[in-house]
Amino acid sequence: MSKINELKAKYKSYVDEMLLYGHCGYVLSWDMETEAPNGSVNDRSKYLGELSKKGFQIVMNPDYINTINSLLEYSTLDKITRHGCELAKIGYDKIKNIPENEYVEFQVLLGQSQHIWGQAKRSNNFELFKPYLKKIVEFKRKEIAYRTTADKKGYDILLDDFEPNLTQKTCDKFFDYLRANLVPYINKITKSKTNEKPAFVTAKYNLDKQRKFSRTLMKSLCFDNERGVIKESEHPFTSNFNNTDVRFTVHYYEKDFLSAIFSCLHELGHATYEQQIDSSLNNTVCSGGVSMVVHESQSRMYENIIGRSKEYWQVYYPKLQRMFKANLGNVSLDEFIAAINTVEKTLIRIEADEMTYPLHIMVRYELERDLMSGKLEVDNIEQAWNKKIKDYLGIDVPSVALGVLQDVHWSGGMIGYFPTYAIGSAYAAQLFAMMSKDIDIPASLAKGNTKQINKWLKEKIHRFGSTKYPNEILHDACGDLDPKYYVDYLIGKHKDK
Amino acid sequence: MSKINELKAKYKSYVDEMLLYGHCGYVLSWDMETEAPNGSVNDRSKYLGELSKKGFQIVMNPDYINTINSLLEYSTLDKITRHGCELAKIGYDKIKNIPENEYVEFQVLLGQSQHIWGQAKRSNNFELFKPYLKKIVEFKRKEIAYRTTADKKGYDILLDDFEPNLTQKTCDKFFDYLRANLVPYINKITKSKTNEKPAFVTAKYNLDKQRKFSRTLMKSLCFDNERGVIKESEHPFTSNFNNTDVRFTVHYYEKDFLSAIFSCLHELGHATYEQQIDSSLNNTVCSGGVSMVVHESQSRMYENIIGRSKEYWQVYYPKLQRMFKANLGNVSLDEFIAAINTVEKTLIRIEADEMTYPLHIMVRYELERDLMSGKLEVDNIEQAWNKKIKDYLGIDVPSVALGVLQDVHWSGGMIGYFPTYAIGSAYAAQLFAMMSKDIDIPASLAKGNTKQINKWLKEKIHRFGSTKYPNEILHDACGDLDPKYYVDYLIGKHKDK
Predict the structure, then answer these.
(1) CB pair distance less than 8 Å for B36 and A242
(2) Yes or no, beta carbons of A37 and B225 under 8 Å apart
(3) How far apart are CA A296 and CA A422, in angstroms?
(4) What's the predicted TM-score (pTM) here?
(5) Cα–Cα distances in angstroms (integers) from residue A204 to residues A197, A255, A319, in the given order
(6) Is B447 exposed, middle or buried (0-12, 13-18, 19+ CB in 10 A)?
């Protein structure tokens, strides 16, 4: 065997072992979230921990790292292997300079802090969580220092963890545009509005019928049941292993039927992406969706741009009406469309509508950025949060549970994650605008499925899996991020009503 | 650390790793059987194969074996560790003398032969499967030769694989008694019978209501939902990891509601056993049920002795009737009890009633025994099968699909397995007779649950897990196997009707 083939064989055997642990972790986690009995949770967590330890041992194994470095020296190395090696090297470089004892300490801290955050939120007591958040911020600042290079420094380092190559400069420019254009518009349109929901929105809807309607939605988005599963869990999510096994969950509420519909469409966006990745990438390290932003751009396009459009519901609303005659028999399509597209200033991010959502993200982004630069300290974060909510959304925050404590992310050490939600939504609008040039979307949706849309997205985004950097894929598909598309879409949609 | 503690720590780290692979295999298999999409089956099989390879590598690791042998030299070794080491040594000794290439060849053969068996059964063509069965028998004969010791030889070696310490001598004595006492009795009582089933047995029963009734059965047997799951699969089974995670499946048929009821009770027998094993054994190699015979003794006691008794249904039949008024409204408890306790000579083992069931096993036992001794060859097995079915059940076998090809076991190399079904049933009767001396079973069942019965079985059988040999546990609970209990129970029950 030639030297390069020897190295490739060695690399493959490491990758195969990581994929084995990854596959086991995938099934064990899915099982834990969807059906494992309560009594088994301790054992399960232990084994999940052992699996990730085994994976970590390979990632940090000097022989594995040497193999990767040696392979990267060959200019003849095939593109996919090269990209996989590069990603592995980047992953290793991220942690190699963090002292092991500090890293371990931080993992222990995170285990506790998520638990404490839950307590603090339930008892509406920020003081309980504050010392943990302080330690997390302190670690993250030190982590930045350890990881600073000529190319990357500050908050950029954390942004890059969740979205490769995303920078503070890009985010600042993006949110500046939103602040200047969206905040005054929302202020204007919400001034004279009443916030009462139509009765049919909060009426009771039979759970089994809701489940059945999810099947209709799945069919409309061309979900392949031979390579996927739908199930239920407390919080909806999508997970997958190769394009042959893509699973998602929905949570059904009797008195909030819209929740299941839109979380189903959202997760179907993630799932469609994963199901359409090229089969040749199965069982490689590039077999999954490439990043948070790209994933959110897909889920939000299906959930919001398509899933809240009149074109889509022209076909599906009559079916929904037939299924829930008592509740929807006298509700017209236009009334339904209006109800699923209201704009309202509210306190909770995950319940926010499409238009106000990015302002919630902007608040979190600015706070994170300032925490990392040292401009803001945890002692002042509650006041800073409340002020920004007042400035951007014009409402007073009545409690920390409805304010700074509402999200789980920071307690899990995830600083740098939030921006991906808003930037993903923005890319959804930008991609959709590009797609509209190539295909007649309303005519396509009138056929009752997203076949043509899926095809376009597969060609431009999905098929690549993780074989390129996310910004490359997005750039090739729709150019550099331009928040104008997003704001134009949001405002245009509202004006049309 | 003392030498023994060093060895114990080393042993524990091997065991922990095996338990990790075991736990992953448990969840992956469960998922594959109950919900994984069809498209994922190839990947899944591959990863299951890799997990068992990893487990096997430890079992055959010389350092592991040395550790075990060294530990066994310490007289101060605690009982549970000693027993675990002994079992490991026995497991290793079983394969150490089989040449590796032959062992691997055999595994490949089994992979093919199960597939071919399916084809042969579907096309009713024994010739297709015959060459594979010949090779399997040939390997098993050679395996016996390789594994023969001063203590163990012949068919005993294979019996021991499925039921430690079970011997041909025990089986011969057992089946001789059945042949002498059960065959003539069944002949007598089935002479004048018509085989028509009452209409309510084959009527249509709503599947969702059947599912709901399974919940009632689970409650009646005190199944702990906090440490277990019920689900559906093609063939019902129970699987488990520790007493904290015990799962079973049922298959529902619209036109055979009794199938789901009795398979649910059967699997609940297995599940109750696993849920009642002592918690201190969790995460050791002794945490599961000890053997096939002991497991079947539990599942068949709950399914047949309790589950087909008037005492049990006195409480539950009114509930069943209420749920299926149209079908059962005019069927009395006595008619229902008669219908679930009919005796009928039939061709298919898995559909056989409680009384004729052991005769089906006897046929297979005698054929296996004679194949292994060389008294019978595969070329004559079809004729031998048909003759025995005629001799014991008095019926002609119309096709190989309904005859010698009906069971999957031999195609999977499982020679020595069948007797455990019948001996398990016999122990069920013997244990039940002992239990009747200690507790008032009818009074206990009148309370609507098996709490007292579970308690007795936990004390005598369940709690030990695999910390003793199965014959020890059974001996301590009810003495040596005496088929008279079994035959007396079967005949007595029938006479009572």
Answers:
(1) no
(2) yes
(3) 8
(4) 0.92
(5) 14, 5, 18
(6) exposed
